[in-house]
Design brief:
Shape: elongated
Radius of gyration: 19 Å
Distance between the termini: 34 Å
Number of strands: 9
Length: about 190
Amino acid sequence: MKKKHLCCLLFVLGICLSLHSFAGNLLEYQFSLGSGIPFYTATAQQTRSDYMAGTKQNRIILTADTSISLLLSKYIRFAAGVVTTQDYLFTDGKYANYIDYAIYGGFRIFPLLKGFNLGIDYAIGQRTDFFGGGNRTYQIQTPWGNGFRLLLEYDFHNGRQGLAPAICANWRRMPRGTQGADHYLTISIKLSYL
């Protein structure tokens, strides 16, 4: 199994290097880490409350996002990537972890020259819930859903080449079948290479 993962990683790396050598400075690579606030469907909230009832809980929420952007013009970019929100709730003997993951594609529009940009993405994603500890362990997967994400970002590149930070805030809405939709508000620090 590890050989398959290594082959896939080398294949993706080869594609990225090929695209970079072909497109030159038309591609921007981005990776971000952050945190946020998830708003789950009523069913997911009730399941977690029932499972973790009567315990003092600790919580960690992490978000990660990686993408490649194609510079279509000075003011417009097309971005494609993957995003995940991982919500860990745990106590001494129990845990309830919600891991959301999605792939997306969308546009970034730079109305001002100083790096401020607006974005809208189309996303396809799913959430897997893990419950453990006590006398039972199980997991639940939501159906795949089609959602969207709105972004506000400030990129410190200002048209320069090289590595630069960016600050990003976004809201993502992900439908979960008949259960409704999850909403994610996140703030992250992004590193981008142009």
